[in-house]
Write a structure and sequence with these properties.
Elements: H1 7-14, E1 18-22, H2 28-37, E2 43-47, H3 59-75, E3 80-83, H4 86-99, E4 104-105, H5 111-117, E5 122-127, H6 129-132, H7 135-144, E6 149-154, H8 158-163, H9 170-185, E7 190-193, H10 202-209, E8 214-216, H11 219-232, E9 245-249, H12 256-264, E10 269-272
The structure holds D-glutamic acid.
Length: 273
Amino acid sequence: MSAQPTISSERSIANNPIGVFDSGVGGISVLKHIHALLPYEQLLYVADSQYAPYGSKTNAEIQSRCLAIADFLIAKGAKVLVVACNTATAAAIDAMRERYSLPIIGMEPAVKPAAEASKNGIIGILATVGTLKSAQFAALLESYGRNVEVVTQGCVGLVECIERGELTVNSTKELIRQYCAPLLAEGADTIVLGCTHYPFVRDLIAEVVGQDIVLIETGAAVANQLKNRLIETGLLSSVQQSCEVNFWTNSKAKNAKQVIERLWGKSAEIKTL
Ligand code: DGL
């Protein structure tokens, strides 16, 4: 019979880190919300940039990457995992939940909040092709997209621009213009940023679509959901001091550290995976 955890071992697990990962640097947009809401939690972040984008990979390829990263984070002591990637959640969260017993938080495009926010009943979704063709996304539309017109657009190449740190250049703006045009042509008044990379080009998107269009992202909601889950499971840290974040990346790019620090907003310890 396996030993029952004692109160002291439960406490020590609660002070273990939270493991967060994405296909690359996009999940840092979620990490920022988590750090702001839960400043006393130790955070581990893995950017799987060598394998980005996930959006053009098969479910089996994405599952294999997610399980490898989860193994890594769990070996580092993660008490809970956050899949800070819509594409990875759609392709791999079921496989992860089958393999691991720790809490795993995923994310999906904010169809429900967008449907509620839209005044004219037309919403646009910008996401990866992988997310848009997933069974999870079809189920999401079935549940929350029935009473609105939903215009979807896969944004091939946009994740790569953000991975390269090209956040304000004309070529990125042109790509955004191209992808937003069909949503605007259909009259969408609300646009979902359905990929965690896209909040890093939110200003460019706003410039392209204009200030009247509501842009919706999910980072804050994921952070709230994580906090509630930590409370429910008794895993909220009892430490009362601000924690730094440990980053790992397998990017081969020369500017990988610079891109992560720019997105994170300050200098950071970044190790090679
Ligand atoms: N940040 C990931 C997401 O939220 C990007 C996926 C990709 O690498 O294509 O979907």
